[in-house]
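Researcher: For the record, we're logging two predictions in this thread. I'll number them. Prediction 1 follows.
Model: Prediction 1, sequence and structure:
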Amino acid sequence: MAGEEERGAARKAQIFEAAATVFARQGYHGARMDDIVKQSGLSKGALYWYFKSKDELATGLVHQILTAESQAMDTLMADPRPAAERLEEMVRNFAAELTRNPDKARLALELLALAHAIPDIRSCFSSHHEYYISRIGELLGEVRGSGTQDGGPQAHRTEAAALAVASVVDGLVLRWTLAQTPFDLEDRLWEAVDIIVRELRS
């Protein structure tokens, strides 16, 4: 039974990787299940055994991507290093990964655009965004030496800063994805986030 589960998980991962490539390069609406079959190297029957439709496959892909991001964030939160170092590493690693693989940014835009039409995708992105902001808030609370749990003006300020960081990341990545003149996403993104961090400390 364990062997079957492992094979099933490996097949799903293979399908998700293929779907991510096809959706990023052709767009979700321009992609066909046959394109994903070809990219994956699996049979059509194997693809439809796991996913009955393109919507179902996209929903599974969103869950897979966001689960991996949450696990990476949990690992970062458990790191004993100072919060400021962890926050900078998170921002720089995120930007560096997109720079190495620009398809990831294009894929994110494609999947986000499906949120208004597929409720499960919308719910998944919404829950993940709230989780992401809360974790950034914890890091920023450590940076300034106070948490967000006790309430009050300082906690509200930290929460607002966390929302600002998330908004800066989303906005600058979108600008980088669409920019006609390339720029260094890693340095530019950390510079913008660091302004928020320094303001919070003042």
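Researcher: Logged. Prediction 2.
Model: Prediction 2, sequence and structure:
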Amino acid sequence: MNTLMLNNLNSQIQFSSLYETVLIAANTALALSLVCITASILISYTFAEYFSMAVQVSAYIGTIVIAAILKVSYVLRCIAQHGLGQEVR
């Protein structure tokens, strides 16, 4: 009986540390993607006259790709918060 409880506790600790790792990675990815999408939007629209057409096209495509990364990292953040028992916002 005690072995079963210890195994269950050990499993919960492993999942908790996994969720904490995912939360840290997701928060980092969110911050990084926010910086990157801001830069790509500035290159695409605000400062377009200072960049070549190839850089502008890359920035337009980058905006779409980075937006997808931002969404996936937010979903991972929500999953990690739910797994840790935190309020999901």
